[in-house]
Amino acid sequence: MKKTDRKRLIANLFKARFPFLYLSTWEEDRALSLIHSIASDRELIKTQRKVITWKVTKGFSGEEETQKADTKSALKALEYIENYSEPAIFVLQDFHIYFGDEGRLPDYQIIRKLRDICSSLKQSPNPKNVVFLSPVLRLPLDLEKDITIVDFDLPTFKEIKQSLDEMIEVNKTSGRIEINLNDDEKEKLVKAALGLTLSEAENAFARAMVEDGKLSIDDVDVILEEKEQIIKKTGILEFVNSNLDMKDVGGLENLKRWLRKRNKSWMESAQLYGLPSPKGVLITGVPGCGKSLISKSISEMWQLPLLRLDIGKIYSGIVGSSEENMRKAIKTAEATAPCILWIDEV
Fold first, then answer.
1. Statement: residue 253 has pLDDT above 60
2. 26-33 long-range CB contacts below 8 Å, 24 or more apart?
3. Total domains present in the chain
4. Is 267 left (phi over 0), alpha (psi -120 to 50) or beta?
5. For the packed helices 198-212 and 183-193, what is the interaxial angle rounded to 10 degrees?
6. How does pLDDT run across 133-144, given as a tens digit for each residue?
7. Based on the domain organization, do 162 and 292 belong to the same domain?
8. CATH number at residue 26
């Protein structure tokens, strides 16, 4: 989903008086920035609203009177929301801890209170919405019908490029970093960072700049090293480094010819000519015929990251919550595109 589509979707849910929204993301600042921009946009939301955030360490913050009230207790925070009389969006950060899972029992008093205030949020004279903002998705069965889940995807190519442009502009002005990138090279650098959060991408660009005092196409490897750390944490995806060349693969000439023809067809410049990017290849054969070898060679030929998805791990029971981890792995692979997803032993 594009950023504009996501922004309009959330705005429409606010306007339609949806009481509870759930955004699952590690990027709190980016999500809060989006919510603030919606809340202040009269064209999008019609009735402008205050954004009031809650953390278990601070209680509510966002306006003067909330600082005075003791709302660190989750129950008192919900009572405060229920009694609040002005248009507002309440963002509850890490509220999933009251919903149970991972060895914790759900707090039934909190869950019951949420169900109690659901109707009052819908019928309030002034619009009020509650947004649960959390890095993980946890929903108690009792609240499944009341909470609307909104996907908050990783940053797009356009968002990462904007961030890189801002960093380049700042460092050009200071004169401390040498920038040596043309438009095509900048595109490759940005695409190498796809699949990272905005903060992770900025950290990767910053590391690339400080390592040798310049930013060039050679820093793609630095970006990919940062990405490798993130991908390892999925538990299922594996970032494969390969120096193999297509010359190392014997035979398979038809496949090699097909791969050479479609090289760089995922670039923006190729889209202008209407060239479709390749979708996938199914390679089958006896052990030792070069299936894995050519998968690694494609990565070197196309200069794209190679992600290995081990189907065996999914069914072996080694990785817990297989379905959720599988979804995360696929989502990361999609966000990392263009990349090569090597599904081994499919």
1. yes
2. 26/135, 26/197, 27/152, 27/155, 27/197, 27/198, 27/199, 28/93, 28/133, 29/199, 30/155, 30/197, 30/198, 31/133, 31/152, 32/91, 32/133
3. 3
4. beta
5. 130
6. 998 888 888 898
7. no
8. 3.40.50.300
Alpha-carbon span 47 to 251, nearest angstrom: 66
Output the average pLDDT for the chain: 81
pLDDT tens digits along 319-328: 555 566 677 7
Query: Taking residues 73-93, what's their average pLDDT?
Result: 92
Q: Indicate if 142 and 19 belong to the same structural domain.
A: yes
E strand segments, 213-304: 214-216, 237-240
Q: Domain range holding 42?
A: 3-150
Q: What pTM did the predictor assign?
A: 0.72
Dist CA 344 CA 26 (whole Å): 29
Residues 119 and 188 in one domain: no
Look at the alpha carbons of 167, 171, 177, 178 in this order and tell me if their dihedral is positive or negative.
positive
